[in-house]
Design goal:
Number of strands: 2
Distance between the termini: 28 Å
Helix content: 55-70%
Strand order of the largest sheet: 1-2
Structural class: mainly alpha
CATH superfamily: Winged helix-like DNA-binding domain superfamily/Winged helix DNA-binding domain
Number of domains: 1
CATH class: Mainly Alpha
Shape: elongated
Amino acid sequence: MKRDSRLSGVLHVLLHMAEDGGPLTSEQLAGAMRTNAVVVRRILGGLRQAGLVHSEKGHGGGWTIAREPSGITMRDIYDAIGRPRLMAMGNRTDAPGCLVEQAVNAALDASFRDAEALLLARFEAVTLAELAADFHRRMAARATPSQEHGHG
């Protein structure tokens, strides 16, 4: 099963935007992400609808973060990208009348709910500003200025 890496990708793009401070084009962001500009525009379009980013057309235009990074949580971003499934595992549903399957599924359902609640609570607790601070700590530890924006 292919993993959904949209949240990771969006966080990556937003950190580049936060670091630059000015408008960045879809093409610039796509270069940083090693993807197509259309993919970036599609992702950022959802974030624009959620009020997390802003876009300006024309010369000098591009994408900017619409709020302070300290006011944007990973949960905000997760919600803006459509709340993709957090768990790859699921219940077996081949025999819904089977009491063994019902017992197993009830236990799994409770575990999945608990795990998702913990993960979403963690998403609510981590801001884009905290991720940017971690990036800066990592850059300082690396101490090689030629590695722009952490790409090596």
